[in-house]
Amino acid sequence: MSRPLFGLVPAGQPVITVPTETPLPTSFLYAIPVNKPFSHVVVFLLPDVVLPPDTAAAIYLVTPAPPGQTTPVSRFLGGIGPGKESAIFNVGQGSTPSPPATPIVIGVSIEPAGSVAQRIAERPQNQHKPQQQGAEGGSAQPSTLVLAQRIIKNAFNFLSSFSGTAGQVEVVPLKAFEEWWRKFESRIRADPGFLERDE
User: Fold this and answer.
1) DSSP-derived secondary structure letter, 129
2) Are 29 and 106 spatial neighbours (Cβ–Cβ below 8 Å)?
3) What are the residue boundaries of the Hikeshi-like C-terminal domain, all occurrences included (predicted)?
4) Which position has the higher pLDDT, 161 or 199?
5) Are 91 and 17 contacting, i.e. CB atoms less than 8 angstroms apart?
C-alpha cells in the first residue's frame, strides 16, 4: 500500500492525498494546517483504489492527549468503503478546540467492514441527522446526500459538453474530468460555501 489510497478536501483548501504519517500499513494520519477555519472535511477513495475484501476505512478525528496523559484521543467520525466511496465529516462541532497553530489531524484506518458498519449504526441518532439549524437558529444546512448530488450535477453539467462516441459507447475524455476537477477545486477554495446554496 505504498501509493496514496485516500484523498481529503478540507472545506476551502486544496486536496490532500499524501499522509503525514503512516503508523501501520493500514493506518494513515493526515495533519491539516489550519490556515483558515473550517468545519467539514471530505474523505474519499482515490480513483482505481480498491480496499482489501471485507474491509472499510474508519475515519477518526485525532486530538492531542489530555493533560497528564500521553495517548492522543481518537473520535470515530464514520467510514467509507465499497458502495460509499466518499463522505463529508464535521470536524468542528464537538471537537476539542486547538490553538490556531495546531493542525487538525484526521486518521484513516482500514478495518473489518462489519466492525466499521456496526460502529456507524451504534452512533447516537442525532449524529446521523443533518444539522437543521445553527446554534442561533440559522438557516438549514444541506445533508450529505444533497451536497453529493450537487457535486455530481456540477460535474455532469461540465462534462456533458465533452461527450463523444467510440463506436456505440458514449465517452468523456479524461482530460475533461481533470479540467472539471481543477475548476471545481479552484471554486471551492474561492467560495467554500457555494455547494450549500441551492443555485
Assistant:
1) S
2) yes
3) 143-197
4) 161
5) no
Task: Name which of 58, 56, 88 is nearest 75 in CA terms.
Answer: 58
Q: Over the stretch 127-161, which tens digit does the pLDDT of each residue have?
A: 444 443 333 444 455 566 677 777 777 777 777 77
**In the chain, % of residues over pLDDT 90:** 23
pLDDT reported for residue 58:
95
The backbone torsions φ and ψ at residue 145, rounded to the nearest 5 degrees and listed phi first, read: -60, -45
Q: Where are the domains of the chain?
A: 6-128, 144-196
What cell was used for 177? 474530468
Q: Of 29-43, 91-105, 126-140, 165-179, which gets the smallest average pLDDT?
A: 126-140
Instruction: Give the cell for residue 119.
Output: 460502529
Please spell the DSSP secondary structure of the chain, one letter per residue: --S--EEEEETTS--B-S-SEEEETTEEEEEE--SS---EEEEEEPTT--PPTTEEEEEEEEEPPPTT--SPEEEEEEEEBTTB-EEEEE-STTSPP--TTSPEEEEEEEEEHHHHHHHHHHS-HHHHSPP-S-TTS-PPPPPHHHHHHHHHHHHHHHHGGG-EEETTEEE--HHHHHHHHHHHHHHHHH-TTGGGS--
- In angstroms, the CA 17 to CA 15 distance is 7
